[in-house]
Automatic annotation (TrEMBL):
It comes from the Eukaryota. This is non-reducing end alpha-L-arabinofuranosidase. Keywords: Hydrolase, Signal. The keyword Protein biosynthesis does not apply. Its EC number is 3.2.1.55. Pfam families: Alpha-L-AF_C, ASD1_dom. Belongs to the glycosyl hydrolase 51 family. The lineage of its organism: Eukaryota, Viridiplantae, Streptophyta, Embryophyta, Tracheophyta. It comes from Pisum sativum.
Amino acid sequence: MVADLKPKTFRFPGGCYVEGDYLKYAFRWKDTVGAWEERLGHYNDIWKYWTDDEFGYFEGLQLSEDLGAYPIWVFNNGISHHYEINTSAISPFVQEALDGIEFARGSPESKWGSLRASMGHPKSFDLRYVGVGNEDCGKHNYQGNYLEFYKAIKDRYPDIQIISNCDGSQYPLNHPADLYDFHIYTNSKDMFSQYTKFDKAPRSGPKAYVSEYAVWKEDAGNGSLYAAVAEAAFLIGLEKNIDVVNMVAYAPLFVNTNDKYWIPDAIVFNTYQNYGTPSYWLQQFFIDSNGAIFLNSTLYNSSSSIVQYTNSQDGKNYLKVKIVPKRASLENASNDMNVELAPYSVTSFDLLI
């Protein structure tokens, strides 16, 4: 089901999971590589379960490669929900991040690249993006810690794109970054209204990576069409601001039916079956947006967009039109057209050009 979405990026190992409620329970990549039977596992004190770490750092990189997606590795920056490492003592965490990049990209003869090679992958992984922490911008030591990571990584790997936790959608960042992380969890009404969120974002500086978005709580339940329609309006707004929004991802991706600690999620599974929520199926409308040409258009009383893309199956060019109406009828339609769209709906159609 994930492959069917044709993702271009895969962010892992997560958000809060990276931090931990307390640092001793944070995800540490070195404990998740090597032979499966030798991994000790750790308690995930955020979502309250024991993880055996058999899906570790290596497996995240491997899955990204299998999907044809760029891995986006998020690492701990010395901050958990309840504790922060002072910037003066952050160097071991910085070294751990550098070692992790070497594991992914280093030659088979390097210290950590040789471990990757021994696990059956002598070729380097195509790691181009790293996220420094998760939702930590407001923490006291974040910016000091962040700058230490930024300087060290850019010194050794100047091509790697570094993602800041600080929101740059209203004001320019006060520190260097290639991208900034933007998260939004809200109700359907507010999510719909957010389709103009990036209309007035700074047009220079780092672009946004909307790495977590979802309608949740009361009007989302375990996943609803109402929530998905609101998310469609928001995504169309991102599409119209492609000059300042670089990437987007729904979150969370998976939930086990036996442990629904957070709902809704895109894919629901257990040991023998799975299904996609409406939010999952909605994303099918946006697959062709990757690499498409955005065409400037305005359809009043709606969130709408038009993109031109090349169909990979027939090689022909199409216009994809997506509309989420505010009202059922569209005013000022041509005399030869009778346009009536159902309220709380998403309409998408292709025109051969």
